[in-house]
């Protein structure tokens, strides 16, 4: 973590891998990747690419130990030679969550070959989910990288902290991944990510990446004029500001949690039925509860509508019935159950006010 070069307005920083700990966590992480699995006897087998294009794929195999009801062994062909070794076999105790059985493995480090340097360690977490309600669903092994790369460099006579992390998990760093720049490590770790095609700010000056080593060993960036101040850009990027600043209703929207009862009420009272499919782990759902369903214009627009929240993990029958594939999914039905409108993902105060307009 030392300064390599400072040429005019260009800075090159050396980066080293960092593993999360109780004292060092990022506020964001990439979406987990998936490996399609096929049945091979009693095992589930698949493979995935990780690292440079010429790197061999990594084979994975899920098996059940003696007497096990769910998959509790995972072989990861870390050296890519097709032979299972004891240090390549991970074990776990499956546990039940959200009415599904989870088999979680890791963290473990998979080596990635580096042509002009030592082998690079790539920390991974794997998990397999079996849903008893969908026993014939296509099996998938999910995985996510654990950690990021980090370094320090001197800018303007003072140290600055830099990090990069993968958002497209393929084992190489490029413009699809993310970075950040800060004056302290504390600010670095609590910041939200910036795409490597985007710029970051330091002391009111904008910096943009110009080149990155595909193994994440170095990052070069330069100062430039983006044509906007940091304050104006921060305000422009704050897409939730209008929702936070919207007038509040005296009372938020009222939701029941009994779909059958809400459906009967809507039919009996000849009212529309609003169904909000959510989960306990859905961040946008919680944000809508805080800022959208408490807004005066939304509460007024939803007057006369029967509203119900449905936990998608708890009510898989309704998820299937309404073909819900993401959360939140917002559906407005007429009194007879005919779908009138549907929206998927976070919707603002203005959007939900319009959604309820009749």
Give structural notes.
The structure is a single chain. The N and C termini lie far apart (about 60 Å). The protein has about 350 residues and is an alpha+beta fold.
What are its keywords?
alpha+beta, five-stranded antiparallel β-sheet, 358 residues, 38% strand
| Main sheet: strand order | 1-2-20-19-18
Strand residue percentage: 35-45%
If you average the pLDDT, what whole number results? 93
Q: Rg, please?
A: 25 Å
Total of helices: 8
Fraction of residues in helix: 10-25%
User: Largest beta sheet, briefly?
Assistant: 5 strands, antiparallel
Helix and strand topology:
Blueprint (H helix, E strand, L loop, with lengths): L2 E5 L2 E5 L1 E3 L14 E4 L1 E3 L2 E6 L9 E6 L9 E4 L12 E3 L3 E3 L2 E13 L7 E11 L9 E6 L2 E8 L2 E8 L12 E5 L2 H6 L3 E2 L4 E3 L2 E8 L5 E7 L5 H8 L3 H5 L13 H11 L3 E6 L4 H10 L3 H6 L4 E6 L4 H6 L7 E5 L5 E6 L4 H8 L2
Parallel strand pairs: 21-22
Antiparallel strand pairs: 1-2, 2-20, 3-14, 4-13, 5-6, 6-7, 7-8, 8-9, 10-11, 11-12, 12-13, 14-15, 15-16, 16-17, 18-19, 19-20, 21-23, 23-24
Question: Nutshell version of this structure?
Answer:
The chain is built from eight helices and 24 strands. It is an alpha+beta fold and 358 residues long.
């Amino acid at each position: 973590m030392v300064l390599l070069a400072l040429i005019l307005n260009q800075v090159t920083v050396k980066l080293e891998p960092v593993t999360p700990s109780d004292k060092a966590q990022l506020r964001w992480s990439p979406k987990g990747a998936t490996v399609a699995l096929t049945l091979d006897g009693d095992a589930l087998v698949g493979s995935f690419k990780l690292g440079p294009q010429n790197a061999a794929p990594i084979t994975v195999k899920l098996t059940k130990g003696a007497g096990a009801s769910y998959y509790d062994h995972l072989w990861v062909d870390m050296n890519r030679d097709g032979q299972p070794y004891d240090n390549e076999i991970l074990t776990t105790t499956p546990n039940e969550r959200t009415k599904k059985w989870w088999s979680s493995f890791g963290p473990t480090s998979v080596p990635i070959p580096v042509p002009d340097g030592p082998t690079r360690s790539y920390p991974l977490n794997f998990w397999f989910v079996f849903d008893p309600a969908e026993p014939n669903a296509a099996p998938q092994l999910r995985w996510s990288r654990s950690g990021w790369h980090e370094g320090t460099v001197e800018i303007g006579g003072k140290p600055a902290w830099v990090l990069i992390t993968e958002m497209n998990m393929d084992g190489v760093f490029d413009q699809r991944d993310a970075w950040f720049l800060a004056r302290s490590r504390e600010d670095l770790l609590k910041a939200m990510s910036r795409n490597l095609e985007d710029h970051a700010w330091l002391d009111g000056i904008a910096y943009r990446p110009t080149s990155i080593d595909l193994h994440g060993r170095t990052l070069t960036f330069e100062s430039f004029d983006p044509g906007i101040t940091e304050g104006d850009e921060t305000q422009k990027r704050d897409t939730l500001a209008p929702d936070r600043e919207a007038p509040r209703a005296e009372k938020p929207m009222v939701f029941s949690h009994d779909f059958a009862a809400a459906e009967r009420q809507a039919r009996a009272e000849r009212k529309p039925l609003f169904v909000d499919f959510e989960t306990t782990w859905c961040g946008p759902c919680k944000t809508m509860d805080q800022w959208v369903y408490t807004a005066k214009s939304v509460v007024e627009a939803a007057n006369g509508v029967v509203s119900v929240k449905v936990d998608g993990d708890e009510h898989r029958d309704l998820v299937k019935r309404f073909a819900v594939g993401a959360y939140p999914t917002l559906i407005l039905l007429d009194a007879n159950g005919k779908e009138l409108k549907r929206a998927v993902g976070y919707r603002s105060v203005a959007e939900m006010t319009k959604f309820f307009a009749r």
